[in-house]
Structures are given as structure tokens and as C-alpha cells.
Amino acid sequence: MRAAAGISSAAARDILPAMGTETIRFEARLRRPAEPKGAAWTFLLLPKAASAKLPTRSQVTVDGTLAGQPFQATLEPDGQGSHWLKVERRLREAAGVQAGETVALEVRPVDKEPEPKVPADLRQALAANPAARATWADITPVARRDWIQWIVSGKKAETRVKRIATACDKLASGMRRACCFDRSGMYSKALSAPKAADED
Q1: Are residues 67 and 160 in the same domain?
Q2: For residues 50 and 164, is the Cβ–Cβ distance under 8 A?
Q3: Cα–Cα distance for residue pair 141/163, rounded to 1 Å
Q4: Which of 16, 116, 120, 170 has its CA 20 to 30 A from that of 49?
Q5: Contacts of 186 by beta carbon, 8 Å cutoff, 6+ apart
Q6: Alpha-carbon distance 11 to 142, whole Å?
Q7: pLDDT value at residue 151
Q8: pLDDT in tens, 98-149
Q9: At 87, is the secondary structure helix, strand, or coil?
Q10: DSSP 8-state symbol, 183
Q11: Is residue 144 within 8 Å of 116, Cβ to Cβ?
């Protein structure tokens, strides 16, 4: 897995100074995604000043409150050096807010990253490859999340199939981390926030 053209090794590894784990407070507008049509979930973009206080430009799991309602979620990179948050319908309804409203949030990076949800196709491939499965079981949740992010960031179905096969081969050979890909999306432009329905 090679870094995209023009990415330095430091950028590819997303090396940033630790910013601490203070509570980050901000306000953001809740939006509906343009795709898929009729989605029950909404999303919001973190202000750049709030995102800059997070420890990484890539995925980061936070505990927080949205309009006073507690939640835990993984913030996704928007490819512009900031992050976005998918707000599931259950959280939005519990908080009593609607798309179009500006909401107050508080977030704080978790002390320990939770286990990521493993896509069914990757889970099946690992089940068929005992050596890859053994390495997978022995790596950290963050390392597992990075492998998953690299796989799902492929836009085409055939790319995803190839990346799953490559990941299993690398894991089977003992490689523990998905190296040399742009976890922030800032350089490869492979990651982005959803387009808002009101931007059509």
C-alpha cells in the first residue's frame, strides 16, 4: 500500500502533536444529506477551530453531548483538515432538535478507542484466512479501524474487493498496521463530508 503521490511519509502517518484531551465546546448547524434521498440521519461539520483541538486529522472517537444529550461517536475526517459527525435519528430525536437548527456540542476524545464495526465482507475474508485472522485478533482497535478505513475509502466495488484481498495478504504476513495511506483525506482527496441537501 503506497502513499498517494505528493504525500510525505509524515503526512501519510498523520503525525500531529498531542493536543490534550480537554472538553471542546462549539456550535454547528445540523444538516440533512443530499444522498441518500430521505435519509433518517443528519450530520454536522465541526468548526475548524474546534477540530484543531482534536489529537488527529483522521478518525477520532469522542464522548460528548449534543443539545445536552450524551453520545459517543467517531468523528470522520472531511478531507479539508476538519471533521464531521453523523447524527443518527435516535440521538437527534432524544436531543429534540431538527435539521436546519444550530446546536451546541461538547466533545472530548475517549481515553481508549472502542472496537470498530467490521464490515461483513472483511469479516468473511478473515474467517477464510487463519493467518490473517490471527494477526487481526492481536492488533489494537485503532489498527483494526485503520485497516477498515483504508478498505472502505475505496469508491469502487472492485477497489474494495482488491483491498480486502491485499489486507488479508498483508495481515497473514504479519503486517500489523495499514501503512502509507492518507487517513485525513487532505492529500488524496479520498475522504469528504456528505453534501448537504440544502446545497443542491
Answers
A1: no
A2: no
A3: 19
A4: 116
A5: 11, 57, 77, 79, 80, 81
A6: 18
A7: 93
A8: 999 999 999 999 998 899 999 999 999 999 999 999 999 999 998 999 999 8
A9: strand
A10: S
A11: yes
- Torsion 15-16-21-25 (CA) sign: negative
Question: pTM to 2 decimals?
Answer: 0.75
38/102 same-domain check: yes
Residue that has been written with the C-alpha cell 491485499 in this structure: 166
Torsion of CA 109, 20, 53, 95, to 10 degrees: 30
CA 38 to chain centre: 23
Phi and psi at residue 2, to the nearest 5°: -100, 155
Instruction: Answer yes or no: do 92 and 157 share one domain.
Output: no
Q: How many residues does the chain have?
A: 200
Q: Are residues 37 and 132 in the same domain?
A: no
Domain-located, residue 42:
yes
Going by C-alpha positions, the residue among 3, 27, 4, 192 that lies closest to residue 105 is 27
Examine residue 159 and state whether it is found in any structural domain, yes or no: yes
Same domain, 92 and 163: no
**Among 33, 30, 26, which Cα is nearest to 54's?**
26
Q: Which range marks the domain in which residue 158 is found? A: 120-172
Tell whether 65 is covered by a domain: yes
Q: Rounded distance, CA 75 to CA 78, Å? A: 9
Q: Is residue 3 part of a domain?
A: no
pLDDT band, very low/low/confident/very high, at 91 (cuts 50, 70, 90) = very high
Q: For the chain, what is the domain count?
A: 2
Alpha carbon of 193 to those of 23, 31, 46, 120, 137: distances in Å? 23, 11, 10, 24, 31
